Amino acid sequence: MRIRRAVASDFPTAASISVAAFAQDELYQYRYPYAGQQQSSFRDFFLRRLKLRNVLPGYIIWVAVTKESQYLKDGAPDQALGSETGRTSEDPGETIIGYAVWCRHGRSAEAGSWQTQSWVDSKQIRFAIRDA
After folding, report:
1. What single DSSP character describes residue 24?
2. What is the pLDDT of residue 6?
3. Cβ pair 1, 36 in contact under 8 A
4. pLDDT in tens, 25-54
5. Which helix (H) or strand (E) holds 30?
6. What's the half-sphere exposure (Cβ side, CA atoms, 13 Å) at 20?
7. What is the 3-state secondary structure (H, E, C) of 33-84?
8. 102-111 pLDDT, tens per residue?
9. For 91, which DSSP code?
């Protein structure tokens, strides 16, 4: 298993992982009472959030990837991922098994170094979250 920075092609699988992880969570059941009936909308929520956080300053998204045979039964992806295979575009032999989103807050010099992505503008944000 290894951890690497996420790329945009990893987000659909990460969104499916979120659905599998939070489908029974009480907070998400309260906020999204019809998530079980409308799983695609619930998944789209996570996908839009990942795309947005990918372009906002201060956020870093990581994925954990593994070779198929290490953690997957019979070399098949977890059924909770639905149609997503978890395969990565970097290495087709690897499968995404988890992800993390980190955000740095604060006003220190170190925190400021995370906030220097001056290339972000409203057009990029709209582009990032459209067609989730």
Report:
1. T
2. 92
3. no
4. 899 888 888 877 887 888 999 999 999 898
5. helix 26-31
6. 17
7. CCCCCCHHHHHHHHHHHHHHHHHCCCEEEEEEEEEHHHHCHHHCCCHHHCCC
8. 988 888 887 7
9. -
Q: Report angle CA 127, 128, 130 to the nearest 5 degrees.
A: 65
Q: Which two tokens stand for residue 44?
A: 């789209």
Cα–Cα–Cα angle for 31, 38, 27, rounded to 5 degrees: 20
Expressed in percent and rounded to 5, the helix, strand and coil fractions of the chain are 45, 20, 35
For the chain, the average pLDDT equals 77
Radius of gyration over every alpha carbon of the chain, rounded to an integer in angstroms = 16
Nearest to 43 by CA among 54, 34, 56: 34
Q: What is the dihedral of CA 113, 124, 55, 49, to 10 degrees?
A: 150
Contact 13, 62 (CB under 8 A): no
Distance, in Å, from the CA atom of 49 to the CA atom of 120, rounded to the nearest integer, reads 16
CA end-to-end span of the chain: 28
